[in-house]
Structure formats: C-alpha cells, structure tokens
What we know:
It is found in: Membrane. This protein is of the alpha+beta class. It has helices at residues 2-16, 40-54, 65-71, 76-82, 106-113, 123-126, 129-137, 164-167, 198-216, 220-249; strands at 60-64, 99-100, 139-141, 149-151, 168-176, 184-193. It has one domain (2-218): Orthogonal Bundle (Cytochrome Bc1 Complex, Chain D, domain 2). A two-stranded antiparallel sheet has the order 1-2. The chain has a two-stranded antiparallel ribbon with strand order 3-4. Strands 5-6 form a two-stranded antiparallel ribbon. The protein starts with a helix and ends with a helix. 24% of the residues are buried. Bound molecules: heme C (HEC). Heme C binds at residues 53-54, 56-58, 113, 115, 117-118, 120, 123, 126-127, 132, 135-136, 157-160, 162-163, 208.
Amino acid sequence: MKKFIIGVMFALSASLMTTTALASGDGVELEDAKVDIHNQPSLQRGAKYFVNYCMGCHSLNFSRYNRMAADLGLTEEQVAKNLIFTRDADGEIDKPGVLMKNGMSQKQSAEWFGAPPPDLSLVGRSRGSDWIYSYLKAFYLDPTRPLGVNNTVFPNAGMPHVLWELQGMQEKHCTKGEGEHATEHCELKLVKAGSMTPVEYDQTIRDITNFLTYVGEPAKLHRTTYGIFTLLFLVLFAVVAYFLKKEYWKDVH
Ligand code: HEC
C-alpha cells in the first residue's frame, strides 16, 4: 500500500509539472510572456487583434471560427459580426464553420517579403509564447533592411512592423564596454511614440501571444481538468481495490 501511495503521489506531481518550451532567441534574452489561456477576456482581445492585424498575411489552417467562438465564450453571431473578415472563392464573407485560412498567395508573398508568412497554427508550440511576445516587442528602425525595420529576436525577419502605429518606433542603441573582450550591450529605445503607452502595448502583445498559445493546443483548456478528475478517480479506485483485496485474502491467511 505504501508503495502504491508513493506511486500515486509521483504521478500527481508529474502531471502538475508544466513544460515550458525552450525557444532560442539567438542569444537574445526572452521576456516572460506571462500568458494565461484561461483568461477569456485576454483571449478575446487577442483574437480581435489577430484578425485585424495579422490575418491579412498569416492563416490559422487548423482552427475553425466556430470552435474558436465556443472556446472563447462567444456566440457564432458575435464571431461572424466582429471577427470574420476573410472571404471564400466567390467573394462572400466566410461562414463560422470554415477553417481560418486567408487568400494570401505563398508565392507572391515570398516575392514581397523574401519569405512567405508562415501559418501560425503551431507557432505557440514551435517558438513558444516567450519568443512570440519578445519578437513582437523587438522591432527597430534599420535603414539597411528592405522594409526599414529589423528585429533583435528574429534578425533580418521578412515581416514588417505591423503594430508600429500602436507601439511607435524604436531604435537600437549599443554601447561597448572597455577592454579587448568587452561585450556589446544593446538597448531598444522608443524614438517615436505610438497610440498606446508601453504598458498598454505590452498588454496588447500579451493578448495576441495568449491567443496564439491557445490556438497551438485548444484542447489544453479542458485537458488539464480531465486529468485532475482522472487522477481523483484513480485514487478513489485504489482505496476500493485495497479493501476488496483485504476482503478476498482474509480467509487465505
Ligand atoms: C504584411 C504581412 C504580415 C503581417 C500583417 C504579419 N506578419 Fe508575421 N510574418 C510575415 C512574414 C513575411 C514572416 C516570415 C519572416 C521570415 O521568415 O523572414 C512572418 C513571421 C512571423 C512569425 C515567425 C514565425 C516563425 O516561426 O518563423 C510570427 C510569430 C509572426 N509573423 C507573428 C505575426 C503576428 C502576431 C502578426 C500580427 C500582429 C503578424 N505576424 C502580422 C508577414 C506578416
């Protein structure tokens, strides 16, 4: 019995341990995105920003509008009215049951940006939330780049700084320490204010990151709850099994 209890405790603690994605930012320190996929208002805001600012280029090929509506606590009518801007082949606004694709041609966009905008269905898992959050914060003016901006987290990225009106524009300032092996220390400084304060902007990109984290694994919203019930059931079942075993073996000993 003692061994069994230890086993159950071990399974419980293992299930409670969360895995954090290890994303490399080419030596750049990533900021903690502090996302919470159970924060529905944040997911709703994130979805709104995503369809307005990102979906022109990026699709979510594995998500459907109506599934998103259900998970985000919205009705299909609300989603159809406020969050669907994509159109089908006949030019009609998409229905809530379709996948969140867009009409962007991969070939053409590769010519425009040097790289096609990838589908972002799984970016929350491949890059991790801290990477996305830090990336959206790390655009800076760089006249040597075709679009005039560069990114410290994703150097030479082909993506324009689509949120510049909200964040404003940053410049990179580097200072080098004294001595032969001194390392360079760089900082991004806001040189042109946007329509949002830095605090508001951070919240906005946290909401977008939260939304992309949810999109990467929608089942997670419910999976963790099922897990807790399963473990509770196993604990209760273990007690029943123990007493049953005692009852059966009573006459043998
Ligand atoms: C004008 C088109 C365009 C818009 C709008 C746009 N992006 Fe991008 N994005 C790109 C392109 C192009 C790339 C590929 C960059 C590369 O590989 O050099 C990219 C890459 C990315 C990546 C990196 C993906 C990876 O794993 O390499 C993320 C994350 C991303 N975009 C998020 C966003 C978010 C969030 C928004 C909305 C706020 C957005 N993008 C809006 C064009 C766009």
